[in-house]
Specification:
By secondary structure, this protein is an all-alpha fold. The N terminus is likely disordered.
């Protein structure tokens, strides 16, 4: 009886180290299993597996913070979107729909994306600051993207940022 009690205390101590997003994923996995939602359960299991794999990647196991978990979620989302496009191009609509459904589940755990207008305003101010230093054209692109990335963080995808920067710089 004492052994079980010690294990329960240890498990609680380990769970205290997980990020809030990872804890939410675990809680939602339990809820989806109880509800019998097989598609959601499968998606959450895959995502949690990717998070755990990321936490043990490298030389030593680490506890991922929310920012690292968001990066894993973005990576998984990107995989699902790309797979859906490939399936759609091959005429396999059922598999494409499944990938899109998984992507929709993953999107629920990502922070809200920045609006196009807000991103445009941030990019324009960054372009103005970089061009004031005398850098223009393609040479300015890297500096502008870095400045925008610092300001918006995870609120905008790198591809979206690059597209807006190109349009503002006229590249």
């Amino acid at each position: 009886m004492c052994e079980w009690l010690v294990v329960a205390v240890c498990d609680d101590a380990l769970m205290a180290d997980v990020s809030s997003i990872e804890q939410r994923l675990n809680d939602d996995l339990t809820a989806s299993m109880r509800a019998g939602d097989k598609a959601r359960t499968s998606t959450l299991r895959m995502v949690l597996s990717a998070v755990r794999a990321a936490s043990v990647a490298g030389d030593a196991a680490v506890v991922l913070d929310d920012a690292a978990v968001v990066q894993v979620l973005r990576s998984e989302l990107k995989r699902r979107v790309e797979a859906a496009e490939v399936y759609e191009g091959a005429g396999r609509t059922e598999q494409a729909a499944g990938e899109r459904a998984e992507a929709a589940v993953i999107e629920e755990y990502l922070p809200a994306a920045m609006s196009d207008d807000a991103l445009q305003a941030v990019v324009e101010s960054a372009v103005a600051a970089v061009t004031a230093d005398g850098v223009e054209g393609k040479a300015a692109m890297g500096k502008v993207i870095a400045a925008v990335r610092d300001e918006v963080g995870d609120a905008a995808d790198g591809g979206r940022i690059a597209t807006v920067v190109r349009s503002v710089l006229g590249i």
